[in-house]
Amino acid sequence: MPTFCAPDGTQLAYRVYGADRDGDPLLCIPGGPADSAYLGDLGGLAAHRRLIVLDLRGTGRSAVPEDTSSYRCDRLVGDIEALRDHLGVRRMDVLAHSAGANLAVQYVARHPGSVGRLALIAPSTRAVGIDITGPMRREVARLRRNEDWFEVAFAELEAITQGTGGDWEAIAPFFYGRWDAEAQKHHAAGQPDNREAVALFAAEGAFDPEATRAGLAAFRAPVLVLAAEFDLNSPPRALAELAGLFPAAELVVQPGAGHYPWVDDAEWFVASAAAFLA
After folding, report:
1. pTM of the full predicted structure?
2. What three-state secondary structure class fits 21?
3. What is the mean pLDDT of residues 106-122?
4. How far apart are CA 186 and CA 184, in angstroms?
5. pLDDT tier at 24 (50, 70, 90 boundaries)?
6. Which of 6, 66, 94, 230 is the most exposed place for a label (fewest CB within 10 A)?
7. What is the mean pLDDT of residues 149-173?
8. Contact 102/124 with Cβ under 8 angstroms?
C-alpha cells in the first residue's frame, strides 16, 4: 500500500483501485473515521475512474499521530492537501462519504482551486451547521415499517434520538436498504476501531459553519449530493438543504438505499456517480 508524509510527519496510507492506474485520480475520503476498506471499490466505480482511497490518520494502515488532537476534522485538511501534492496533480475530483464530507467541504472552502468535481455520498452535514433532528430521522425510519425487524429497531431508535439510552447495534438494519447477509457482513467489517479518532474528530473547534458556508457559496465547480431514500443518518430533506449551499449542485436520491448505497444497489450507484464524474 503506498504512503505519503503528512505535514506533521505522520505517515499516511492510501489504496489504489482501478485498471487505469495512470488516469485522473478520484480522491475518496471515508467516513467514520474508519478503515477505508469498507468503501471497497465503491461497487465497481473503479471500472470508470482511478480511485485513491485515503486511510485517515490513525485508521487502516495509516500511522497514529504523536499529537492526537490532530484527529480534529479541520486539522485533517492539511492531510488532503499533502496527498494532492504527493499525487502531483494541480486539481483533483473528490468523493466523500458520510463524516468524510465534513472534511471534504472544509477542504473545498480552503482550497477551491484544487477541486474539479465534488461528489458527496450520504454526507454528514455537521460542518455546515445543518441539524438533523430526531423527528427527521424517525420520519425516514418509518418508511421501513413493513420490515420484520422494524418494531425492535424503531424502539431503540426512539430511545437514542430522545436521549434515553438505546442500543446502537439494534438499529443497524436502518442503515441498509436490505438487511441481508451481504449487508450484515459489510456492517460487521466496517466498524471504527480507533475510538479516540472518532471521539476527537468533532472536538470543539472542528467546525466553523459560517466560514465553510461562505467558501461553498463561492465554489462554482459541479457538485453531486447523492442521498438515499432510506438513509436516516443523512435524510434526503437535510441533504436538499446542503445542496442549496452550492451554486452548481445537483441532488440525486437513490431509491431503496440506505447509508451505503453502493452496497444496496451497486449498478444504480455506479451509473449515477460515473455519469457525474465522467
Report:
1. 0.96
2. coil
3. 97
4. 5
5. confident
6. 66
7. 93
8. yes
Whole-angstrom CA distances from 263 to 63, 68, 118, 145, 266 are: 28, 32, 21, 21, 6
Residue 209 CA to residue 109 CA, distance in Å, equals 11
- Cβ-proximal residues to 136 (8 Å cutoff; 6+ apart), any chain: 235, 237, 238
Whether the pLDDT of residue 117 is over 90: the answer is yes
Q: Which three three-digit cell numbers place residue 268?
A: 444504480
Q: What is the mean pLDDT of residues 202-219?
A: 97
Sign of CA dihedral 121, 242, 68, 203: negative
Q: What residue spans define the domains of the chain? A: 3-129+192-277
Cell of 17: 483501485
**Tell me: domain 3-129+192-277, CATH 3.30.70.270, correct?**
no
Beta strands in 122-237 (DSSP E): 223-228
Q: What share of the chain is helix, strand, coil (3-state, %, to 5)?
A: 45, 15, 40
| Of the listed ranges 115-129, 184-198, 261-275, the one predicted with least confidence | 184-198
Which residues make beta-bridge pairs with 15?
Answer: 53
